[in-house]
Design goal:
Layout (H helix, E strand, L loop, with lengths): L1 H23 L7 H12 L3 E3 L4 E3 L3 E12 L8 E13 L7 E10 L2 E6 L15 H14 L4 E4 L2 E12 L4 E12 L2 E2 L4 E11 L2 E13 L5 E14 L7 E13 L4 E11 L2 E10 L6 E12 L10 H6 L19 E13 L2 E13 L2 E11 L2 E10 L6 E12 H9 L4 E14 L3 H7 L1 E14 L3 H12 L12 E14 L2 E10 L3 E10 L5 E9 L18 E8 L4 E5 L1 H29 L2
Parallel strand pairs: 5-7, 5-8, 6-8, 17-18
Antiparallel strand pairs: 1-3, 2-3, 3-4, 4-5, 4-6, 7-10, 8-9, 9-11, 11-12, 12-13, 13-14, 14-15, 15-16, 16-17, 18-19, 19-20, 20-21, 21-22, 22-23, 23-24, 24-25, 25-26, 26-27, 27-28, 28-29, 29-30
Length: 607
């Protein structure tokens, strides 16, 4: 027992002697010239320490310094790369003897960092490493790997008023990042410690402000880092931002397995503008390409409110867009991704098109994006899509398989393209492939085949029975004004197949049937010019009674040519009256021949 007392007394005496020695005989300011010279030799930079260095002693040992600046390379503006107003580092002395670190205080205030990139490519970092940096790193790394600590206790860490200025002279741009404050409360291993930060950034096209708080815990063996209750609120403003302002908020918890290099994030709530979401993300960053697995659930999304507003016609005329050649999008980043994503969305509205109950599975690996499944409710029907984009070549290729069943086609066309052309319950399937993602090239290079059928519908913009009646009246010499009726033709079914090549959809077997009419023919639709060119044949089943016609129509059974031209937005319908007249004359001639034949047979039968 006496030995222990004597040992403690000896330790205290040694500490007192060291303190007296350092205070009386050892002034840290005496080393300023040596420190400045060492930095000069190592980096070629000027280190300036204007304030006096001062010691702190028992129960903590530390050093206070301020007025520190490190210069940028010669000829750079600003001259200083780093400026520090005040820095304090204090460590408890006694715990060091038992391989424990107790940091009483770590604080940094008023640091300014100026990172300059010049027009010739040189930057503020040039020369900082020095010639011996690699050699120096090896023993340091070995020392750190062999060091073992029993515990770490931190009274607090505070970083305030730190600013990073990123200056690009070639672009004449300056980006300012400001860490207004970062605090870590009392910290010990296996215990949660509070953290908080406040951050802002000013960039050429936007400003960002963010603040957050939560708590973290580090395991005693340094293999597990846990962050709980982290809530971050961010505001982004700028001309390129939807509605010039975007507010986001996220609440999450995360666990990092430092030994296995794995990270998992549980997002309790994420809001961005009017979008809400929740989900989980897992990352394995031990592999060459980090493996990411994500599962998100989103609410209602209205992309129309987030997309930039269309410029007015006057503005377009005053500032016409420059005609620059389109280039392929750079998808090379897909080669550096290994992602699996599951996504459910309550509803999505884009370009005024509404869909609900999205369920999507996406995978990205080795430069290939696989949309293995996309299901959604679409205008009282169902949408089912699978697709693949191969970005391993400079010009991406793609393939897809799309099916639509039970969709109400009229509201879909009106919302998607402002086209009031068709109504009915539609079923549609198409398979296609192509190369290039430039919009115009995409239309030209797309090869596809498909089929459609529409039941219990109507063709809007044309009243075929009325057109036939009008043509029939004119053939008989009746030039009285046409009666005004709704421009609509009802049908029980409309079917056809199509192929797409070089931007032109070819439909060789269009067929429409109704209680009054039969329509058949073929035509094309040009996706590049939106031009329509159809040649159809219409025939009356019996009569137009109920549509303004007689009980027994003279045109019943006669093929009536119909042409559809114009564009998707403004289709034009016209009867070929010349062909109609020829067909009717032929019909009348055939009837006259039959009548003459019957008359001759009767006469011959009299002999």
């Amino acid at each position: 027992m006496k030995f222990i007392k004597w040992l403690l007394a000896l330790v205290v005496t040694l500490i007192l002697l060291v303190t007296v020695y350092l205070t009386v005989f050892f002034d840290p300011n005496d080393f300023k010239p040596e420190i400045v010279d060492a930095v000069k030799k190592q980096t070629g930079r000027e280190l300036v320490i204007t304030d006096d260095l001062s010691w702190t002693f028992f129960p903590v040992i530390g050093i206070n310094l301020g007025g520190v600046s490190l210069s940028n390379p010669e000829g750079f503006t600003p001259k200083a790369m780093l400026e520090v107003n005040k820095a304090v580092a204090e460590v408890a002395l006694m715990p060091l003897f038992s391989q424990q670190i107790e940091i009483a205080e770590l604080s940094l205030d008023g640091a300014t960092i100026n990172l300059v990139t010049r027009k010739n490519g040189t930057s503020s970092f040039d020369g900082l490493s020095g010639d011996n940096s690699k050699k120096a790193a090896t023993p340091a790394a070995e020392t750190s790997s062999n060091a073992k600590l029993n515990d770490i206790n931190i009274g607090g860490i505070s970083i305030t008023n730190t600013q990073i200025n990123m200056i690009d002279e070639a672009k004449k741009q300056t980006q300012v990042f400001t860490l207004k404050s970062f605090t870590l409360g009392e910290f010990a291993l296996e215990q949660f410690a509070p953290i908080a930060f406040e951050f802002s950034a000013t960039m050429p096209d936007m400003t960002v402000s963010s603040e957050g708080k939560g708590e973290l815990k580090l395991s005693r063996d340094f293999t597990q880092l846990v962050v709980n209750g982290l809530k971050i609120d961010t505001v982004v403003e700028g001309e390129s931002i939807p509605n010039k302002k975007l507010e986001t908020s996220i609440s999450l918890a995360t666990q990092i397995a430092l030994d296995k290099q794995q990270l998992s994030v549980d997002i309790a709530q994420l809001t961005a503008a009017s979008i809400t979401a929740a989900g989980k993300v897992g990352v394995n960053y031990a592999t060459k390409i980090p493996q990411i697995n994500a599962d998100f659930q989103l609410g209602d999304i209205d992309l129309d409110t987030l997309l930039p507003k269309t410029e007015t016609a006057d503005a377009t005329e005053q500032a016409p867009a420059a005609s620059t050649p389109a280039v392929e999008p750079d998808l090379s980043a897909l080669k550096q991704l290994d992602v699996k994503l599951k996504l459910t969305v309550k509803s999505i509205k884009v370009a005024n098109l509404s869909t609900q109950n999205w369920l999507m599975d996406v995978g990205i690996k080795n430069g290939v994006l696989d949309l293995t499944k996309l299901n959604a409710d679409l205008y009282q029907g169902k949408l089912l899509v699978s697709a693949q984009v191969d970005a391993r070549q400079a010009v991406a290729s793609y393939q897809f398989d799309k099916k639509v069943t039970g969709v109400q086609i009229r509201p879909l066309l009106k919302d998607a393209a402002d086209v009031d052309l068709l109504a009915g319950t539609a079923n549609f399937d198409v398979k296609g492939k192509g190369k290039s993602l430039i919009p115009e090239q995409l239309k030209k290079n797309l090869l596809a085949n498909g089929h459609f059928d529409i039941n219990d519908g109507a063709l809007y913009g044309v009243n075929i029975p009325q057109m036939i009646r009008s043509a029939q009246a004119k053939l008989k010499g009746d030039l009285s004004p046409e009666t005004k009726e709704e421009r609509k033709t009802d049908f029980s079914s409309l079917t056809g197949s199509f192929s797409l090549d070089n931007g032109v959809a070819t439909n060789p077997d269009l067929a429409m049937s109704s209680p009054l009419l039969r329509l058949a023919g073929k035509g094309t639709a040009n996706l590049l010019t939106e031009a329509l060119d159809y040649r159809l044949t219409t025939s009356l089943v019996s009569s137009l009674k109920g549509q303004g016609g007689s009980d027994k129509d003279a045109l019943a059974g006669i093929d009536i040519p119909l042409a559809i031209t114009g564009t998707f937005q403004k289709p034009e319908y016209a009867l070929d009256t010349k062909a109609l007249l020829n067909n009717q004359l032929k019909e009348e001639t055939d009837k006259a021949k039959e009548k003459l034949k019957d008359s001759l047979l009767k006469k011959l039968g009299g002999f």
